[in-house]
Write a structure and sequence with these properties.
There is one protein chain. The chain has helices at 2-22, 27-38, 48-51, 56-71, 76-81, 83-112, 121-134, 140-149, 155-185, 193-223, 228-248, 253-266, 273-279, 282-295, 299-302, 304-331, 335-340, 350-360, 366-397, 402-412, 417-425, 457-474, 496-504, 519-529, 548-556, 584-599, 617-632, 650-657, 673-679, 682-689, and strands spanning 449-453, 477-484, 510-515, 534-538, 563-567, 576-581, 604-612, 640-647, 663-668, 693-698. The chain has 703 residues and is an alpha/beta fold. It folds into three domains: 2-408, Na+/H+ antiporter like fold (Up-down Bundle), CATH 1.20.1530; 449-560, HUPs (Rossmann fold), CATH 3.40.50; 576-698, HUPs (Rossmann fold). The chain has a ten-stranded mixed sheet, with helices on both faces.
Length: 703
């Protein structure tokens, strides 16, 4: 049942998160909603009866990873630049958030009767202090995600990240005091109050000491490890040992984890590979963590707690915003920080949920957990819905959302980012700039033809250009082929745009009209009858031709010459050419196309050789030497810059590398449909995502 529970939590969390992303909501909201669906509020599949506490260890792992990740963003050198303002803001917003939440909760509980029957004044005080402490925490993951998405950077962003790190550190520390004070209020601590406070400081000091020791040990061990897998395994082992030792000694594992991260990131060597290594391990743990949190949210049990959760949420925001404003004035922070930084602290998730789990696991506080858990999760749900929007508003208002600024420029021209991409793929976005290279010299008599066909006036000039370039290479002439239904009268000025394009390049144009009810069979007949050296086809513009793939399959499968498909995107440029390959056979097939392009003038050509991940440097160097040897044996040499990369994701590697190029040339497999269905086509997949003009080469007789 536990394995089934894990599978359901992961699958449901991912599924609902993808739905939330459609509505521009954060993934964590989807995870919590998925947990609610699986828990008592929904289908009641995941509950205490079905899995008990068998998944609690995932919670402890997630808490340690979250706290360790917070430490990565506490770089002391950066904090020194704004130490006065950061210190004042951190202290003031923490005190105000604690005070606002504690007072609001106490007033609500004490004077409205929102509590459990039999509660006394001491219970009201205890739950107010605990909720006030939890209210301090923010969600670094949600904030960082927004910052990365909008490419935010600058003084405001650096200050925001520093405050978040300090904020969660203070939350963990004050939470420790709140727990001790709650025990004291309930009469379960026989010590005097000053001893409770003193012991709280001792616990915090010991937790920090444990974290510092773990951080130093991590640094020593990681120097001896090289592969990412070894680092992830060794680092996770030490962090989990730290967590278990902290629990055994009744210390704060969250504070220890954060201290370990701070030590590691501030070492002189600053080796942060462990953070990157753990990134690949974190996603499923986080999904389990948040979906499990959602299962604890029972809507039936919310009742008045839902009202209290809303009050908790509003009081927390009020405390954050007012505390930042107060601290910024005292610390003389920039005006943007004073006005907007409080909105960047609205998100709340991971640490807060971790704190309520700690409350739930304390036998003395179990009674309070029945109210605190739904209250905090209600606040978390609201903050995760509103928080990312608040962070985006903050960094945008501060003028540091660079990606949004670029998008705003586009929107001022009437286009959003998505519409801008569609625009550059459409008839209105594709532009064939006039020919600026020197005129070419055709061979007369020619050695044949390069055939091209087009169905859209926007791209016909570009197809004529590529056909002429390839005709120049094969020492033949470009030929425009139009397929018309039998009995159709040809329109006036047919082939006019093609004639003008080839003439501007110095070439005559051969034309032919083929009467045939089928475009595919007409193309095959025209190509075979004229013994064409190559066929050039244009990929349809958005929404113009739905049966293009059927035509392509029919033509590529029945002609004996190469077929080149051109997918246009925006302005047509060919000066910088990228050639991704996975083997020398791939390079052999696309090399004539590259030579043809390079023959018309000097080009920058880059070869991207894709290897599977994990290949050692010796293999990569051997591949570079192999490509160099292959090129040296060619009669017609193209000056290629060779880059060999070992990658887990070929498509993404091509997309990333293409940023510095105008045109991408790739080979595609001519194969049976069923084989293509199972094994796919790299070139076809790239063509759907690439935001560059692309040539896809289908060579004959490829197996």
């Amino acid at each position: 049942m536990v394995t089934l529970g894990v599978a359901l939590l992961l699958a449901a969390g991912l599924f609902v998160a993808k739905i939330c992303q459609r509505f521009h909501l954060p993934s964590v909201t989807g995870y919590i909603l998925a947990g609610m669906l699986l828990g008592p509020s929904g289908f009641d599949i995941i509950n205490k009866q079905s899995i008990g506490s068998n998944l609690d260890h995932f919670t402890h792992i997630a808490l340690m990873l979250i706290s360790f990740g917070i430490g990565e963003h506490v770089e002391l050198k950066k904090l020194r630049e704004h130490v006065r303002s950061v210190a004042w803001i951190g202290v003031c917003e923490a005190i105000c958030a604690f005070f606002f939440v504690a007072v609001a909760v106490f007033v609500t509980v004490h004077f409205t009767g929102v509590d459990i029957e039999g509660w006394q004044l001491r219970d009201h005080l205890a739950i107010s202090l605990l909720l006030g402490a939890v209210g301090l925490a923010t969600a670094p993951a949600a904030t960082l995600l927004v910052i990365r998405e909008v490419k935010a950077s600058g003084t405001f962003t650096a200050t925001l990240l520093a405050i978040i790190a300090i904020d969660n550190g203070l939350a963990i520390m004050i939470f420790g005091f709140a727990i001790s004070i709650a025990h004291h209020i309930m009469g379960q601590a026989g010590e005097a109050f000053y001893l409770v406070v003193f012991n709280g400081f001792v616990d915090i000091f010991q937790s920090l000491l444990l974290g510092i020791f773990t951080g130093i040990l991590l640094d020593v061990v990681l120097r001896k490890l090289k592969s990412q897998g070894e680092m992830m395994t060794g680092g996770l082992a030490l962090l989990l040992l730290c967590s278990e030792l902290a629990q055994y000694l009744n210390l704060s594992s969250l504070l220890a984890g954060m201290a370990a991260g701070v030590i590691l990131v501030n070492r002189a060597e600053r080796d942060v590979r462990i953070f990157r290594a753990l990134n690949s391990f974190e996603p499923p743990i986080y999904v389990l963590f948040f979906t499990l949190a959602g299962t604890h949210l029972d809507i039936k049990a919310l009742g008045a707690a839902g009202i209290l959760g809303t009050i908790y949420f509003l009081a927390r925001i009020g405390g954050k915003i007012n505390g930042v404003a107060l601290g910024a004035r005292i610390g003389k922070a920039p005006q943007a920080v004073l006005r907007y930084l409080g909105f960047g602290l609205v998100p709340q998730a991971g640490v807060a949920i971790g704190l309520i789990f700690l409350i739930s696991s304390d036998p003395a506080l179990t009674e309070y957990a029945s109210i605190i858990t739904p209250v905090v999760l209600t606040g978390v749900l609201l903050s995760e819905l509103i928080g990312p929007l608040a962070v985006r508003f903050a960094v945008t208002s501060a003028g540091e959302a660079h990606k949004l600024n670029e998008e705003k420029d586009r929107e001022e021209n009437g286009l959003s980012t998505k519409k801008h991409d569609l625009h550059l793929r459409s008839a209105d976005g594709v532009q064939i700039l006039p020919w600026t290279w020197e005129k070419l010299s055709p061979q007369i008599p020619s050695k044949g033809v390069v055939v091209f066909g087009a169905a859209h006036h926007t791209t016909v000039g570009g197809l004529a250009r590529f056909a002429t370039i390839f005709a120049n290479f094969y020492r033949c002439l470009p030929m425009a082929l139009r397929i018309v239904k039998p009995g159709t009268v040809s329109p006036p000025r047919l082939f006019q745009e093609e004639l003008e394009e080839t003439a501007s390049m110095g070439y005559p144009l051969v034309t032919e009209v083929v009467p045939d009810p089928s475009v595919a069979s007409g193309l095959v007949a025209g190509v075979e009858y004229n013994a064409a050296k190559m066929v050039v086809l244009g990929y349809p513009l958005h929404g113009t031709v739905s049966s293009f793939h059927e035509i392509l399959e029919a033509v590529a499968g029945n002609v004996g010459c190469p077929v080149v498909v051109v997918r246009f995107f925006g302005e047509l440029h060919t000066e910088r050419i990228l050639v991704p390959v996975v083997s020398l056979e791939d390079l052999e097939e696309v090399y004539p196309v590259v030579m043809a392009l390079d023959l018309i003038g000097e080009h920058q050509v880059g070869l991207l050789y894709l290897l599977q991940s994990g290949e050692p440097d010796t293999v990569m160097q051997a591949k570079e030497a192999e490509v160099a040897q292959w090129l040296s044996e060619k009669e017609h040499k193209v000056n290629l810059s060779v880059k060999v990369v070992a990658t887990d994701a070929r498509v993404q590697a091509v997309l990333d590398e293409s940023a510095g190029y105008d045109l991408v040339v790739m080979g595609a497999t001519r194969t049976q449909v069923i084989k293509k269905f199972f094994f796919g086509s790299l070139a076809d997949t790239v063509s759907k995502k690439l935001q560059k003009t692309m040539l896809i080469v289908y060579m004959p007789n490829r197996h």
